């Protein structure tokens, strides 16, 4: 007879189980729901952020077919414009000056455009004057006319006709709000002025930052790249998307992985719960098998239960995930506090494909978690199962260790493989394999750990009973523990990684912040040589080292690296440059550059390599330095070489050494006073301690969500322990009745259960922490370098490790006791007679 | 709300009075050639306006219009940027093919500079990227325009001297003397060249009319548009007539001239010119009602003479609003004993001048 | 009808996994309406014999045939089908599922092969009435006494009209009075329905209602009287 013909009987059995234990099933469904919710929420938030980010990029770009971009904010010579405009395949070209402006302290991206060209190439960036107010024909070319996007208009609280003071590039100009930019997407703070006014008023004469290109016949101009100078590159939608994706991809993938961990833990919880449910029902299953239910009928029964749990849990999870994502976006912003998507508001975009994906994952976790124990139950001989109360305990059965060892070895091997497309996919597989191996090895580990205890004698009866029960049935213990081991391991791994990272950053900050005061000019402005000289004369200063930091695009599909021009001590070690590697020899006629570790890994450069930069000159890598601040890489060039290559004498930052006994506050005030009036309010001065605190705050904020996800995973794991402990305890009611009959006191049974719980927690803790430690090594030395391109040493957060272990022991013991009290509340005679 | 970039509106619409430092057009200026063929950048608005009829090798008649405009926006002259909008250039080209029943047209616009767009002083030499009109040392004009639908490369050979309109080139446009332009025409230009359509070049010949006008204050208050015609008469004569319309079609001003085949010129006072609509046509695109067939009446010393102006076809409306240009009707017309162009502006929207 | 052999066992042999032989050369025949009791000391292999008869365990040698079907020729699926249709079970521990109604418990063998709710419910109700629990069909196991639970189990064993009923100490958990009533009910029902029944028991009372009482020893079955 097939399962189909038995479906009525199956229905009775499933329905009966659900009526009998609704709370247990609800709990497993909730575990799945939490996993799905977290995964879906993180995915939604990331997806929304990225699409908003790309939308913002497209708006600023104004939907040009492609554009010629400057590789740095220094721009390129405007003489390139006619050459691009007349290049073969170019239908039209629109020159653009881009300024990071502030209007009343609010940041606005100011675009200088030729309205005639923009109308052909990027019509969404063309301003609209309100009817009725200023129909003067010259408004389009008026050098004081400013068109603002809705967001910019709101930010600066202006309306058409208002006069605004605009600051950019260290210059200020008064402009009249001439109209709006209805083509700009909501949330983007953009202003448009005439290109000639932009060049003149904000000191960018002769320079352009971008040329938007309209293609002829929809094909990319064939030889455009060949006419470009070094300081310009070609960008398109595709390269922009790649670049914005690259900016945060590693971070997003890591978050997605964490969310999946929560789902995985939920799957383990289902496995635990269903294992116990199956164990409890072994005799029922044996009976119906005796009565004539085929073997796969049992698997079908449990799988159907899992399916129902999965459907309910995953549906709940999707709803919850959407709500979570909404709340998170409103509360923390699109990058959940990590600072990757700094500008613009983010709208939640619903992702049907992702919803289906996470629903399926939730379903899979629930069904897989159910089918595995059911298959084991179905294999049990029905006659024996009917006679014995389920779990056939034989303390002599050896626990297999080989599968665990093989999985661990595979995991170790995967950790040695390189990243795929900048993502540490093998690293994550390695972690998954190690985790699977650890869980497969749990029975063996429990047996091994408890073996010395079980040989001992002369303990109190309850403790001895507890140890012998666990030692005899380690598989049962492992079942109860797999969820908690998985979540503990992952949490410990994350904690070790974050601690290592934070410790490395802290130490590094201490090394690089070796000066007394740091000065920075905000808002894209800078100090010209005269201002630099004036600041140098401020009393109380022994030395002041000026530097300039600009983003430099080395490849169109990669985010720009930071080019840092500053004085470098070359005749000895430079204290603010923590070199990992350095070289001596350098060919004549070349200038030295020192590249950060991420730059070295991203661009594959090593010490001694000749490097072509989009600024004039020939450069050779003289050293690789440690940098945790700029994930996209940084290059230090001597300020003298930089000025020679670019002619740019502006400096934006300064490191100041105070004279002995000088009061930092007094010097701060004097520096502020000596700054040029145009930079009033734009000069920020900070002490190393402040900078360090700020940096660590940023760090903690970017990992806040990581902590949150970990916490949830642990909670799900603990809930699993509670559920399985209580289920196991209740399943042993008859055993307790028998013990009561032979004269074991209630109190002793509770002690026994508490001991068992604590031992379980201990074993789980040891296993989880050990596994976590191993997985942390993969995170620190494989996944982190492959995702973020920096390396660090391992630091172990002993405090957190201890707390986790303690929490586990207490939680396991506590739930065991709670469940035990309920189990022994009934009278002993009834307990023995209890049939099921 | 309309895109700000109505640079045509900006050029043709001179809301700015002469007070902003543009030179005022006054009578009595002396014209020197070839200097006047070149640009006069101090003035706010200027154009090189070629209209004419072409005959293809297979004997078909086509009308064409090629216009280069120049305007000087009132911006800060001190701006040292090479992008400073000291001169804005734009151009229009349209082809009237009766077989098609509507105009084919294209346009170019740019601020002068970077060798991409310029209008030279001293002789005709206007470039807008790949479009240009130039006067060669031998006195012939060449012009090239390329649109999505057609390309024209023409040589225009003058066969008559320039005809100074108004009082020795001072052409009053309204009741006040400063409402005026400097204006001369070269009628009866012999046309030869090449027309490319659908990638196939063909030789064309024909006859054209060049209008040259520059001004700082073209239309007076209350004016909404004008009717203009320039006719090459078969006997070698050239007739130009215009009227400026106020609201409700009331004529505010009129003028024109007839140069007879022997070179004598008759100038028309406002009362000497009448336009009477004979047939109207409503544009399906803009809803504007154009008097596409008109009777032009001019008073000559020998008596009143009437010309019935019949369009090559009715729909010669030029709707370039997408490019920020105003809507107007610019069409090839025939008349008994001649042919030329009729221009009707301010019918769709009042031309804000 | 009366002389038709519903169960035929020939030359059965079985040892426990440790190597000790339980029995060998065991022959047994049961006819319709015949009730055979098997007695013997503990550990002699009575339950193992029952498991072999049910196809839940395999003999080392010999054959079991139920209604001319030889069990050792059947695969797992066929054995399962055979149990569901031709064999009924009564256990010492009743094994009445606590989360199903009594009617569902009785109907379980029918529900394994059919989905006709109405027919199943009618048959189960009739059988419940036959064991004297006709009004309790919607109740649950926890409402019943041990004797009542075993009545439910007997109803479940007979509801699908099997050829053979196997009972393992059916009165082991019952007091003597209740046990007597249950045994009477059981033997009446067996004779009424014309099934063959094998009872494994220690109880003299149980043996007393049997047509034949056989003692299981290592050399096979011996007639006790």
Task: List its salient traits.
heterotrimer; A: alpha+beta; 4 domains; ten-stranded mixed beta sheet; six-stranded mixed barrel; 25 helices; 55% helix; C: Rossmann fold; six-stranded mixed beta sheet; four-stranded antiparallel beta sheet; 7 helices
Counting DSSP E segments of at least 2 residues, the number of strands of chain B comes to 24
Low-confidence stretches of chain B: 1-19
Kindly give the count of domains of chain B.
1
Euclidean distance between termini CA atoms of chain A:
27 Å
The largest β sheet of chain B comes out as:
13 strands, antiparallel
State the helical fraction of chain A. Answer: 55-70%
Strand content of chain B: over 45%
Q: Please tell me the overall pLDDT of chain A.
A: 79
Number of alpha- plus pi-helical segments of chain B: 1
Approximate shape of chain B: globular
Q: Which percent bin holds the helix content of chain B?
A: under 10%
What does this 3D model show about the protein?
The complex is a heterotrimer of chains A (836), B (353) and C (225). Chain A has 836 residues and is α+β, with helices and mostly antiparallel strands. Chain A folds into four domains: 1-63 and 245-393, no CATH class; 75-230, no CATH class; 405-415 and 436-509 and 695-836, no CATH class; 517-686, no CATH class. In chain A, the strands form three sheets. In chain A, strands 13, 14, 15, 16, 17, 18, 19, 20, 21 and 22 form a ten-stranded mixed β-sheet that branches. In chain A, strand 18 (610-611) and strand 19 form a beta hairpin. In chain A, helix 7 (237-280) runs antiparallel to helix 16 (474-512). By secondary structure, chain B is mostly beta strands. Chain B has one domain (36-345): AttH-like domain (AttH-like fold, Beta Barrel). Helix content of chain B is 2%, strand content 55%. Chain B has one helix at 7-12; strands spanning 2-3, 45-56, 61-71, 88-96, 103-111, 117-119, 125-128, 131-135, 141-146, 150-157, 163-164, 170-172, 180-197, 200-217, 223-233, 238-246, 251-259, 265-268, 273-282, 289-300, 303-311, 317-319, 327-335, 338-345. In chain B, strand 20 and strand 21 form a beta hairpin. The longest helix of chain B is centred in the first third of the chain and has 6 residues, at 7-12. The radius of gyration of chain B is 19 Å and the shape is globular. The two termini of chain B are 19 Å apart. Mean pLDDT of chain B is 87; it is low at 1-19. Chain C is an alpha/beta fold. In chain C, strand 7 (164-168), helix 6 and strand 8 (196-200) form a beta-alpha-beta unit. In chain C, the strands form two sheets. A six-stranded mixed β-sheet of chain C has the order 6-7-8-3-9-10. Chain C contains seven helices and ten strands. Chain C has helices spanning 46-53, 76-86, 102-111, 117-130, 146-158, 176-193, 204-208, and strands at residues 5-15, 21-31, 35-39, 61-66, 69-70, 87-90, 164-168, 196-200, 212-217, 220-223. Chain C is globular and about 50 Å long. Chain C has a single domain, classed as Rossmann fold (3-Layer(aba) Sandwich). Chain C starts with a strand and ends with a strand. The longest helix of chain C has 18 residues, at 176-193. The model of chain C has no long low-confidence stretch (mean pLDDT 84). Chains in contact: A-B, A-C. The A-B interface holds A 78, 81-82, 85-86, 95, 114-117, 119, 123, 126-131, 135-143, 147, 178-179, 182, 194-197, 199-200, 205-206 and B 1-7, 9-11, 13-16, 73-76, 79-85, 88, 90, 109-111, 114-116, 129, 323-324, 352. Chain C: InterPro entries: AAA+_ATPase (IPR003593), ABC_transporter-like_ATP-bd (IPR003439), ABC_transporter-like_CS (IPR017871), ABC_transpr_LolD-like (IPR015854), MacB-like_ATP-bd (IPR017911), P-loop_NTPase (IPR027417). Chain C: Keywords: ATP-binding, Nucleotide-binding, Transport. Chain C: This is Putative ABC transport system ATP-binding protein. Chain C: It comes from Sphingomonas aerolata. Chain C: Residues 7-224 form the ABC transporter domain.
């Amino acid at each position: 007879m097939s399962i189909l013909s038995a479906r009525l009987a199956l229905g009775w059995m499933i329905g009966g189980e659900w009526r009998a234990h609704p709370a247990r099933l609800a709990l497993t469904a909730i575990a799945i729901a939490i996993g799905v919710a977290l995964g879906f929420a993180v995915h939604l938030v990331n997806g929304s952020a990225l699409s908003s980010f790309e939308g913002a990029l497209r708006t600023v770009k104004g939907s040009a077919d492609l554009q010629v971009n400057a590789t740095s904010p220094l721009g390129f010579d405007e003489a390139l414009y006619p050459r691009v405009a007349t290049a073969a395949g170019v239908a039209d070209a629109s020159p653009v000056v881009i300024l990071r402006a502030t209007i009343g302290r609010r940041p606005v991206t100011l675009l200088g455009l030729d309205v005639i060209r923009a109308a052909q190439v990027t019509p969404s960036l063309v301003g609209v004057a309100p009817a009725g107010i200023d129909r003067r024909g010259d408004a389009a070319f008026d050098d004081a006319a400013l068109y603002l996007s809705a967001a910019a208009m709101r930010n600066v609280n202006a309306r058409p006709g208002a006069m605004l003071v605009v600051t950019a590039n260290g210059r200020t100009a008064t402009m009249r709000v001439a109209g709006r930019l209805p083509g700009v997407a909501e949330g983007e703070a953009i202003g448009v002025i005439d290109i000639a006014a932009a060049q003149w008023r904000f000191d960018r004469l002769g320079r352009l930052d971008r040329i938007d290109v309209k293609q002829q016949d929809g094909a990319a101009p064939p030889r455009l790249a060949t006419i470009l100078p070094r300081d310009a590159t070609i960008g398109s939608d595709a390269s922009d998307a790649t670049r914005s994706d690259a900016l945060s991809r590693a971070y997003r993938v890591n978050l997605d992985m964490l969310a999946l961990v929560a789902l995985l833990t939920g799957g383990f919880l289902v496995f635990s719960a269903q294992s116990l449910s199956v164990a409890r029902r072994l005799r029922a299953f044996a009976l119906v098998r005796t009565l004539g239910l085929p073997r796969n009928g049992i698997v079908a029964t449990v799988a159907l239960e899992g399916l129902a749990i999965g459907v309910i849990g995953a549906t709940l999870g999707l709803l919850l995930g959407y709500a979570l994502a909404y709340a998170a976006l409103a509360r923390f912003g699109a990058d959940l506090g990590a600072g990757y998507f700094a500008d613009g508001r983010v709208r939640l975009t619903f992702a049907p494909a992702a919803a289906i994906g996470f629903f399926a994952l939730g379903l899979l976790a629930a069904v897989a978690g159910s089918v595995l124990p059911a298959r084991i139950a179905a294999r049990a001989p029905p006659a024996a199962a009917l006679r014995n109360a389920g779990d056939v305990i034989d303390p002599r059965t050896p626990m297999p260790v080989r599968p665990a060892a093989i999985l661990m070895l595979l995991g170790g091997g995967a950790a040695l493989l390189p990243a795929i497309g900048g993502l540490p996919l093998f690293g994550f597989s390695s972690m998954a394999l190690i985790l699977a191996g650890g869980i497969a090895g749990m029975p063996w580990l429990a047996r091994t750990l408890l073996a010395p205890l079980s040989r001992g004698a002369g303990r109190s009866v309850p403790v001895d009973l507890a140890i012998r029960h666990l030692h005899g049935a380690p598989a049962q213990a492992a079942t109860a523990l797999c969820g908690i081991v998985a979540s503990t391991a992952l949490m410990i791994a994350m904690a070790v990684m974050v601690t290592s990272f934070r410790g490395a950053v802290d130490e590094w900050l201490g090394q690089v912040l070796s000066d007394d005061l740091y000065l920075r000019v905000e808002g894209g402005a800078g100090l010209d040589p005269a201002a630099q000289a004036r600041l140098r004369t401020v009393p109380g200063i022994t030395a002041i080292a000026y530097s300039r930091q600009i983003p430099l695009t080395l490849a169109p599909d990669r985010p720009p690296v930071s080019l840092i021009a500053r004085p470098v001590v070359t005749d000895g070690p430079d204290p603010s440059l923590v070199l990992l590697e350095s070289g001596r020899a350098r060919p004549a006629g070349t200038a030295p550059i020192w590249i950060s570790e991420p730059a070295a890994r991203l661009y594959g450069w090593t010490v001694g390599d000749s490097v072509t930069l989009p600024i004039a000159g020939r450069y050779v890598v003289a050293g690789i330095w440690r940098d945790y601040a700029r994930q996209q890489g940084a290059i230090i060039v001597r300020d003298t070489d930089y000025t020679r290559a670019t002619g740019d004498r502006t400096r934006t930052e300064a490191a100041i050494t105070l004279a002995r006994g000088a009061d930092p506050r007094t010097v701060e005030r004097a520096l502020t006073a000596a700054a040029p009036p145009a930079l009033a309010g734009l000069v920020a001065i900070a002490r190393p301690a402040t900078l360090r605190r700020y940096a660590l705050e940023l760090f903690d904020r970017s990992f806040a969500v990581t902590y949150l996800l970990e916490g949830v995973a642990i909670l799900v794991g603990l809930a699993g322990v509670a559920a399985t402990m209580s289920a196991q305890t209740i399943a042993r009611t008859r055993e307790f009745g028998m013990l009561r009959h032979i004269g074991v006191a209630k109190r002793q049974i509770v002690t026994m259960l508490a001991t068992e719980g604590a031992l379980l927690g201990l074993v789980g803790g040891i296993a989880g922490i050990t596994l976590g430690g191993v997985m942390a090594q993969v995170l620190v030395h494989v996944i982190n370098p492959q995702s973020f391109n920096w390396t660090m040493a391992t630091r172990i957060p002993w405090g957190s490790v201890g707390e986790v272990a303690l929490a586990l022991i207490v939680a396991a013991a506590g739930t065991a006791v709670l469940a035990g009290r309920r189990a022994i509340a009934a009278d002993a005679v009834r307990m023995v007679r209890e049939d099921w | 709300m309309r895109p700000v970039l109505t640079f045509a509106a900006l050029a043709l619409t001179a809301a700015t009075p002469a007070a902003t430092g543009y030179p005022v057009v006054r009578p009595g200026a002396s014209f020197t050639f070839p200097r006047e063929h070149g640009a006069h950048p101090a003035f706010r608005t200027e154009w090189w306006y070629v209209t004419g009829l072409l005959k293809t090798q297979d004997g078909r008649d086509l009308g064409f219009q090629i216009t280069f405009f120049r305007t000087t926006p009132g911006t800060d002259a001190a701006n040292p940027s090479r992008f400073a909008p000291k001169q804005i250039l734009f151009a229009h080209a349209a082809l009237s093919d009766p077989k098609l029943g509507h105009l084919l047209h294209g346009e170019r616009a740019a601020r002068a500079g970077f060798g991409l767009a310029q209008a030279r002083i001293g002789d005709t030499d206007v470039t807008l990227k790949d479009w240009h009109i130039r006067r060669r040392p031998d006195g012939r004009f060449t012009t090239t325009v390329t649109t999505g639908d057609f390309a024209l490369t023409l040589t225009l050979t003058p066969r008559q001297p320039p005809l100074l309109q108004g009082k020795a080139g001072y052409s009053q446009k309204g009741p006040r003397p400063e409402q005026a332009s400097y204006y001369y025409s070269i009628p009866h230009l012999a046309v030869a060249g090449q027309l490319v359509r659908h990638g196939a070049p063909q030789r064309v010949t024909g006859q054209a009319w060049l209008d040259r006008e520059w001004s700082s204050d073209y239309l007076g208050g209350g004016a909404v548009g004008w009717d203009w015609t320039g006719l090459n008469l078969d006997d070698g004569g050239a007739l130009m007539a215009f009227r400026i319309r106020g609201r409700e079609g009331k004529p505010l001003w009129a003028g024109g001239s007839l140069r007879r085949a022997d070179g004598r010129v008759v100038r028309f006072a406002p009362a000497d010119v009448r336009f009477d609509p004979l047939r109207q046509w409503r544009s399906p695109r803009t809803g504007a009602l154009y008097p596409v067939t008109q009777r032009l009446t001019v008073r000559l010393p020998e008596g009143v003479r009437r010309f019935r102006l019949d369009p090559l076809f009715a729909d010669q409306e030029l709707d370039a609003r997408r490019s920020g240009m105003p809507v107007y009707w610019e069409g090839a017309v025939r008349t008994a004993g001649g042919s030329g162009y009729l221009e009707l502006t301010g019918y769709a929207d009042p031309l804000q001048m | 009808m009366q002389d038709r052999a519903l169960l035929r066992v020939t030359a059965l042999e079985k040892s426990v996994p440790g190597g000790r032989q339980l029995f060998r050369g065991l022959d047994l025949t049961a006819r319709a309406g015949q009730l055979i009791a098997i007695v013997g000391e503990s550990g002699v292999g009575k339950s193992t014999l029952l498991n072999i008869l049910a196809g839940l365990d395999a003999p080392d040698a010999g054959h079991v045939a139920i209604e001319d079907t030889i069990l050792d020729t059947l695969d797992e699926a066929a054995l399962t089908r055979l149990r569901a249709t031709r064999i009924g079970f009564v256990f010492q521990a009743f094994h009445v599922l606590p989360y199903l109604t009594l009617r569902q418990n009785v109907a379980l063998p029918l529900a394994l092969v059919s989905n006709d709710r109405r027919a199943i419910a009618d048959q189960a109700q009739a059988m419940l009435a036959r064991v004297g629990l006709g009004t309790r069909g919607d109740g649950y196991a926890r409402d019943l006494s041990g004797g009542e639970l075993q009545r439910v189990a007997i109803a479940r064993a007979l509801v699908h009209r099997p050829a053979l009923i196997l009972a393992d100490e059916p009165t082991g958990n019952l007091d003597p009075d209740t046990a007597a009533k249950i045994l009477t009910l059981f033997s009446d029902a067996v004779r009424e329905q014309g099934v063959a029944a094998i009872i494994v028991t220690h109880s003299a009372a149980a043996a007393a209602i049997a047509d034949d009482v056989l003692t299981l020893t290592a050399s096979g079955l011996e007639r006790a009287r």
